[in-house]
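Batch job 17 of 40 flagged for manual review because the log was empty.
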Amino acid sequence: MPRAKHPNKEVEAAIQHAEKNGWTVEVGGAHAWGKMYCPYNDAECRCGMHCITSIWSTPKNPGNFSRQLRRVVDNCTTHKKQHGEGTGDTED
């Protein structure tokens, strides 16, 4: 069964971006529309557990919130490491 779409199109696009990068989205919860879970369980990644991000149903500024969600996905340290992005290693 497909998940419910977020009511805001910008936030929905950010959620789809997360899903394309392997993140799991669970709809529902006490105070949020849902949550996004990082696919990696790496001790070096942020808090040492799965990265979890709440998805608000009615963010104050949907554009800023959608960019924030994308940043969480794009800045995942384990994802960057596995794909050779942003390691800071340069060979001269």
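Reviewer: the log was empty due to a logging misconfiguration, but the result itself is present. The mean pLDDT is 82. Unflagging and moving on to job 18.
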